[in-house]
Design goal:
The structure is a single chain. The chain is of the alpha/beta class and 231 residues long. It has one domain: Spore Coat Polysaccharide Biosynthesis Protein SpsA, Chain A, CATH 3.90.550. Helices cover 28% and strands 23% of the residues. It is built from six helices and eleven strands. A seven-stranded mixed β-sheet has the order 5-4-1-6-10-7-11, with helices on both faces. It has a two-stranded antiparallel sheet with strand order 2-3. It is globular and about 45 Å long. The chain starts with a strand and ends with a helix. The mean pLDDT is 95.
């Protein structure tokens, strides 16, 4: 079964002042934190090992995980000193995934069991598509609860594209499966996943699976407050 990494190192600045004293993954919707919801989503899918990177208010997340009793094996990687950004955070943890493709997931999407079938499609895609180095789950921006998203990508025949002359129709949901080999040439410690994606787009090696689910993403303080009322 595939291994997973949950990105939990960020500052969550768009949710200030809530995230000045509490890391974004520990914000609550209903009876779950964003982090526990994501972990349980992965557990139910069958993931056995999860790596979680932490930096901002790291000790709060570490203490929280130590007090909880999750079924899955969890390894925490603390980014000391400077935050490594999304790509650098993954590269810093890459040794935990050997040479096998692994799942990277953001905890600020409200994942539920309806996504399990779509995760399976993402997993199948990276296995069957010869030129594929990464598959991301995207959603048409019309399905987003937050209507302020301008979109991240376009997609044609499952191939992700980025053309600034066109309007972007699809939003990245926060779920991708990636081949660790794509990080082999990176010498910088701090960089964004966008650098990886842009290279893969140029090589026509970044593929997408379209989600059919309504997209609930904790993007801003206003969206968070509205979602708390809805759930």
């Amino acid at each position: 079964m595939i291994k997973a990494m949950i990105l939990s190192a960020g500052y969550g600045k768009r949710l200030n002042p809530l995230t000045l004293e509490r890391p974004k993954p520990l914000l609550e919707i209903g009876n779950e934190t964003l982090l526990s919801n994501t972990i349980k989503f992965l557990e139910k899918y069958g993931v056995k090992e999860i790596v979680i990177n932490v930096h901002f208010l790291a000790d709060q997340i570490i203490d929280y995980l130590n007090k909880k009793s999750f079924k899955v094996k969890i390894k925490i990687i603390k980014e000391e000193g400077k935050i490594l950004d999304t790509g650098g955070g993954v590269l810093n943890a890459i040794k935990n995934f050997q040479n096998d493709p692994f799942l990277i997931i953001n905890p600020d999407t409200l994942w539920n069991e309806n996504y399990h079938q779509e995760l399976k499609l993402v997993e199948e895609k990276i296995t069957k598509e010869k030129n594929c180095k990464c598959v991301m789950l995207v959603v048409n921006k019309e399905k987003s609860f937050d209507k302020n998203f301008k979109g991240d990508f376009n997609m044609t025949n499952d191939l992700i594209a980025k053309n600034e002359e066109k309007k972007y129709q699809y939003i990245y949901t926060g779920m991708q499966i990636i081949n660790p080999k794509v990080f082999a040439d990176y010498k910088n410690k701090v960089f964004s996943m966008n650098d990886i994606w842009n290279n893969l787009i140029a090589e026509k090696k970044l593929f997408g699976v379209q989600s059919k689910n309504k997209f609930y993403h904790i993007s801003t303080l206003n969206i968070y407050e509205n979602l708390k009322k809805n759930f």
